[in-house]
Sequence to fold (1198 residues):
Amino acid sequence: MGIPRKIVLALLCATSLRAEIVDRVVATVDGHVLTFSAALAEANYQAFRSRSEPVVTLEGDALKTVISKLADQQLLQNEKANSPYSAPDTGEAERAIQSLRQRFPGAAEFQRELVRYNLNEQWLLQRLKLETSILGFIDYRLRPQARVSPAAIETYYRNVLLPQLAKQGERNAPPLAQVSGEIERILTEQEINQLLDEWLMELRSRSRIRIVGGR
Amino acid sequence: MGRFRSIIPAVIFVVLAVSGLRVFGADFEGVPVNEIRHRPEEAVQQPLGPAELQELLPQKIHEPYSSSKISESIQRLYATGRFSDVQVDASGVPSGVILTFLTKSAYFVGAVEVRGVEAPPGEGQLRSATHLELGRSFSEDDIPAAIESLRRVLQDDGYFQAELTPAYKRDPETQQIDIAFDVRTGARARLGSVQFGGSPIFSPEKLIRQAKWKRGRPLTSAMVQSGLERIRKLYQKENYLAASLGVTAKPFDAEKNSADLEITVQPGTQISISISGASLSRSTLKRLVPVFQEGALDDDLLEEGERNLIEYFQTRGYFDVSIHRERKQNSPSQTAVEFIVHQGMRQKLEEIRITGNRYFSTDALRERMRIEPVGFGLPYGRFSSKLLAADLESLRTLYDKNGFSAAEITSKLETPEGSERYLKVTISVREGQQSRVGSFSFLGNHSFPQPVLESLINGGRGQPYSPSVITSDGDNLLTFYFDEGFPRAKFRFNETPAADKQRLDVQYVIDEGQREYVGHTYVHGLEHTRRGVVNRELQFRDGAPLSQSELLDTQRRLYDLSIFNRVEVAVQNPEGRENQRNVLVYLEEARRYALKIGLGAEVGRFGGSAADRTNVQGENEFSPDVSFQVTRLGMGGRPHTASVSGRFSTLQKRAGITYTAPRLFNHPRLEGSARAFFDETRDVRTFTARRAEGSLQFEEKKSKITTLLSRYAYRRVTVDTDTLKITETEIPILARPILVGMLNQTIIRDTRDNPADSHQGVFTSADVGLAAKQLGSQASFARVLLQNSSYYPFSSRLVFARSTQFGVQSPFGSGRAVELPSQTGQPAERIVTKEIPIAEHFFSGGSNSHRGFAVNQAGPRDPVTGFPLGGNALLLNSLELRFPIWRNSIGGALFHDAGNVFTRASDISLRQHQKSRQDFNYVSHALGFGLRYRTPVGPIRLDLGYNLNPTRFTTPDTNNVDRSPQPQRLARWQLLFSIGQSF
Fold:
């Protein structure tokens, strides 16, 4: 043997003692810390929901995108904490997780898939609860401000729906009265989305979001 | 085979090690953690101690590795605020994993300096502009915003080309960072042209003239703002009450180093406000209708004006007044508002009756009411619907605080039959059931026993139940907790009906939260001052609970030392979550040397030659004076002061040194001072005196208003006998150079609002002095001097002031030997005299005492020469009515001074007339008028006094051979000029 066993073992020990950064701070939002593991978990959650490939590592623009999403979440959570809003527990998160389970033939497959995305069921449930709670808060804050006028409904009916139906070859378009409820719902959601964008911009402008580089 | 077997574990380990690189920490999940290390980036003391770190981290040694616990550990470490970055490094070892927390320390704002700027702007303003607060966490991201803000402030004051460079000085041990901004300002820009946009109405020339802006003047923010204010006043004067104007741009020309001003003016509508149906002065109308102060015209302000007018008329007897307003748009730019008043009958509030009250007496309720029936000073009474509503609310609050939450209080207005002019108010009280507290307890008070907390509150078992009392108790408890190191304490209460349904059981629930303690105290900025001086003023100790009131008290005490220009006391890392809080004490020492130069003047009858033995009163003379004082602070690194001062005028030459030591022997209210001076004074026409004196004084502040002074003075007073204008035989007795050692005790009680120009309060002083042989004095005498002054405001600007002074001194002991020179060539006669030397006599007269006399001219006079001798008793009473003449600058006073100086206490008399020209034991009266001009250092005063019964005496007729006595009388009129009020 060319290399003494002790040297091999020493080299192997050196290799095994080689440090790896297992987690770190990637950003802070008004003093609240976002860790790399949280960002990676969020990225894998999104990948799991959208059935994309698991995310092994995050860097560059991909990391910034996830950080931005987490920052928005944190800002909304901070607002929720300072408001009188109290989310009722309607079991929506449990229903959501059940719906996710049903994508798989059985519980074992579901668990395996979670492991593949480096997630676990408890974390998933918490994540879904958080999502439900934030969506509920957004609805509570913004829905009263989202007003859709009859004129806007009619404009949508004439300028968007009818042309769309015509394009699809639909000859007998339903009357406005029949679809106005649905149109109102769509426009309200659009309005809420726009209000949410404006609200997030305003929250960001008065918050301190700091991206932290590595050591 | 054996060799292969031994390699297998190593191979497996390599495989494991290699596969671990692909996923963050996943391979360590569940592996026991053998060791947790902490490695800060800078090799200094770790901000948190080992025990604290161990308790803080959810991931523990000998427990399985958990990535969620690692993540939470990072969050908790960061949340302490002590770290700006945290990474976790994991190294696999055969038996587990070693974790290393790699941390980068956070820094906190320390001293902030902005250097190189000539004011304006001032350094304080520049420091504030950076928004870098002492103790807050520092990030370099904040610096661009700070620089931008500084640039705006500099541009406002004409520095458009400033270059700013930040410099940092870090202290890894304290985690403090000092930030200095070095500024190269360049020359201050000058004012260029001024353009007005919008709809100015007035010509630009008129506006520029009004603003007093001159092209070429250095451009400063104060100059621009004061100009804008003048322009605003012009618009308001022309009834453009809602005019708005502002600088929209300041284009800068770098070549000329000048900046133009572009101002946009929107005058708004021209508003005229009038009143009909009643007579009201313009100034009162302006005061009552807030449109004028607010500079806007809207319905809310007009409604408020209407309410104010109703109240105004109601308080003047028009209880039924009704007012409505009419608004007319005369043109697009002119609006007229007219308040139409129907005063109705003028009535008088005859009687106020209160019925139904049992718990509170009628007197107790009436004390809380503002409506008043007809009485002295209230010919119509005081009544309005607003006042009545406020009184009813006040009574309801009183009942509520005492457990009568269901009390009903209503009012009824009546006019007796046949006399509609007279109004009666009946207030009916239905008290209802009084709720009382049944059982009372605390919950959650782990740190303080119930008796301690009960001493802070008003509620308790058996007390009247009142929500407002509970709220006030909650505030008191939280204030207590905040001061005991519990900044996150919360208070709430529970109430349940007691078993008997008559009472309520109350429980106060306290959530104390985490207690915070003082960690380390970092003192910064000491260059010349000893650290011990600062330590003695610190009201908190390392390890003690953190108390905000102690921090504030420390700041106040350090300021009181008068050796620091600026004192900042702050908690380091206030947003971080940690129990041990470092306290920062940042100081800016005052300049050690200060030079003061003063100019003053006196006008009065003290002129004339010292050799002139005929003009006993002196001529009116203007006596300028110059004074200087050089002070050195911080003697020996302590808050002691040494000063050298001098004063030179035609009346007095004085030079002296003083050493002052506040907080003597570490006593917070004891101050010691030592003084030595030489003085030559001729403000007594009778003589010129020279005095050399050394004194030691201790001043103790017994309370905010009471001061005790103990003083020992040792002096040698020499009267220049060439200038002494008294009977020759008296000269050796009264005028021999003499050493006086005197012990004085003075007590002062002072509640005046402003000692330089008092409007209210009382000043009382009592001084007792003893000169005795045992104290080194050649003359033994005792002295008492009492003064009492009081001030009564009759309105915001009319003040009645009075002052009484009484002084008496008497010799005692065996006297001192004096040689009387013989006129006839015989040997000098030696006598023993107890006479108090003339330089120690009381003298009165002049701008600061009796204004019916010239300076020091009151009292007994030499029977031969007629010059004043002073005396051993003094009585003076002054009355003064002070009133405004023009704005706040010029005021006037009418005064009456009465009193005199007497030879001895037994000679004090209240007679108004002299028995003869040799009798001076009477009270002299003077009436007068004065003008005062208010300055920042006190009023400049000119008084004209007229003596109603001036002193009559005789002097030798020098034109006559036999020098027969000629009758004389002191002048009636005195013109006196001085600085400061007379008392």
About this structure: The longest strand of chain B covers residues 593-607. Residues 436-511 of chain B form a domain with the Ubiquitin-like (UB roll) fold (CATH 3.10.20.310). The first helix of chain B runs from residue 2 to 20. Residues 10 and 194 of chain B are 85 Å apart (CA to CA).
